[in-house]
């Protein structure tokens, strides 16, 4: 009889168990919320770029060019992966007109939490046609050629999904580059790292 009483009183009381249970649930909820509740968007930077050729042929409205771009993508989330639900592309634009599109990452490619991936994009063409460049583009080209520096925009576009999230989110980042022409045989020019600007996310992203 007495022993029974002793056992009942020595163990944690029912109230204490409830309190511990509630605290654990709150902590678990807080951890899950911190891990998956808030999406932090990927960041894009161009760490290096070099333009070794950029010739406009006005008769064919096309560029003969060689350009390399080092695009660095970082996932700042500590628990969520970022998965590409469509191929991620980069468009190269001069005077707002696209003269090249290169694939940065394939559909299904994943960027794990906290990780950084470096894409070394190297492209060139004898004739990258830009039908929309027009006379205005040619004028701008001549102006920039005088300076020996060309303004080229890298526009990254893709669609991603974050772990534990249902919605697919469009990703659009623009990186305005000012590239000094450095033909082969001339000294390499220093490149100032460029932070790309992310377009505002859609609802639920
Ligand atoms: C392209 O430009 C380079 C100088 O950057 C020049 O040497 C070359 O002749 C040009 N080529 C054409 C086809 O215009
Ligand atoms: C420049 O681009 C052309 C493609 O038109 C390619 O054949 C050539 O190897 C490239 N040059 C360099 C230095 O990458």
From TrEMBL:
UniProt GO BP: defense response to other organism
Alphabetic keyword roster: Membrane, Transmembrane, Transmembrane helix
GO cellular component term of the entry, any: plasma membrane
Descriptive protein name: Uncharacterized protein
PANTHER family given in the database record: OS05G0367900 PROTEIN (PTHR31415), OS07G0250501 PROTEIN (PTHR31415:SF78)
Predominant location category: membrane
Transmembrane domains' residue ranges: 18-39
Localization (cell): Membrane
């Amino acid at each position: 009889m007495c022993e029974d009483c002793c056992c009942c009183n020595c163990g944690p009381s029912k109230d204490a168990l409830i309190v511990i249970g509630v605290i654990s649930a709150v902590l678990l909820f807080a951890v899950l919320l911190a891990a998956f509740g808030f999406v932090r968007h990927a960041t894009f930077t161009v760490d290096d770029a070099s333009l070794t050729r950029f010739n406009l042929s006005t008769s064919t409205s096309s560029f003969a060019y060689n350009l390399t771009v080092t695009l660095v993508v970082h996932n700042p989330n500590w628990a969520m992966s970022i998965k590409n639900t469509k191929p991620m592309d980069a468009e190269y634009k001069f005077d707002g007109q696209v003269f090249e599109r290169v694939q940065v990452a394939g559909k299904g490619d994943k960027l794990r939490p906290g990780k950084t991936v470096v894409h070394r994009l190297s492209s060139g063409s004898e004739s990258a046609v830009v039908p929309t460049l027009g006379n205005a583009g040619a004028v701008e080209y001549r102006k920039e050629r005088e300076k020996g520096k060309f303004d080229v925009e890298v526009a990254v576009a893709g669609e991603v999904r974050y772990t534990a999230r249902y919605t697919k989110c469009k990703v659009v980042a623009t990186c305005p580059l000012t590239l000094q022409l450095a033909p082969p045989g001339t000294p390499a020019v220093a490149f100032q790292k460029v932070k790309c600007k992310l377009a505002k996310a859609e609802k639920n992203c």
